[in-house]
Amino acid sequence: MKNCKVSVIICTYNRKSIVEEAIQSVLQQTYLDYELIVIDDGSTDGTTEYLQRTYPSIKVVFQENKGISAARNLGIRLAQGEWICFLDSDDLWTPKKLEEQLAKTDQQKTKISYTNEIWYRSGKRVNPSKKHQKYSGDIFKYCLPLCIISASSVMIHPSVFDKVGGFDEDLPACEDYDLWLRMASQYAISYFPDVFILKRNGVDQNHLSQTYWGMDRFRLYALGKLLTTTPLSPLQIQLTQEELQKKKGIFENGAKKRGKNPGHYALRSGGKESKHTFFSG
Fold it and tell me: 10 Å Cβ neighbour count for 17?
């Protein structure tokens, strides 16, 4: 039996001065039947001790540094709610996020929903480009070029993870792109245009997109894995293969411009050899 309606999972790494703002945005929700789980992914800045001392009612769990995917998966395993939500430690929720998204999700009888967000970069509001437009229903083809779903905006029924699995712990980046593709291939996903998320980039230097070059190599891994491990319709297979060839060309050209061997990088994900690759070195 579930102990609450919603499990909220925040994962953080060395963001003691930032994660508290995310926590406060959860504590200020108008909907109260939730649990808040914070996974500290091996912080060395005293995050766990500070949060346990300051917020004794919150479940704060420390793990050795294993990356965002492992941290989120741990949160999923610990979750006791009927629904699961994530909040990135540098993002914020508006006060009615849980109340209104839960009501709309129940009304539409969907197992996955996501919402709109406002973007801030280095403290200044920016407008997303047209390629980031969001869609509802069968959104698989729209998820292939890039990640259009913000992890901080989703509300997911736990049975979805039972069917498609969790975040890929071999991926050091683009782990959300990989998971949303698997979900979108099997489920309709409801989009609510309400703005419930303040998405902040540039509040610190701890962003994966700033750590790795050639992010398409991780998307190539995800696409290759999708083709070999996920049951897809003939149309989904065709669309995935077409997108894979596009990204392969882009990545190869980018690698060569940097004097890098594309095969060397594409064969590895998270430092491990991968069978989900379409490069020959």
Answer: 12
Residues 176 and 44 in one domain: yes
Q: What is the DSSP letter of 233?
A: -
Residue positions counted in the chain: 281
Give CA–CA dist 261/252, Å, rounded: 8
List 119's β-bridge partners, or say none: 126, 199
CA–CA distance, 20 with 47 (Å, rounded to integer): 10
Residue type, 34: Y
Alpha carbon distance 281, 279 (integer Å)? 6
CA atoms of 183 and 16, how far apart (whole Å) = 32
The verdict on 150 and 51 lying in the same domain is yes
- Kind of pairing between the strands at 272-273 and 34-41: unpaired
Look at residues 184, 209, 234 and tell me which one is the last residue of a structural domain.
209
CATH number for the domain spanning 197: value is 3.90.550.10
What does the pLDDT look like over 179-195, one tens digit per residue? 999 999 999 999 999 99
pTM, rounded to two decimals: 0.90
- Domain residues for 268? 216-273
What is the per-residue pLDDT across 92-132, written as a single tens digit (0 to 9) for each? Answer: 999 999 999 999 999 999 999 999 999 888 778 887 778 88
Specify whether 236 is located in the same domain as 186. Answer: no
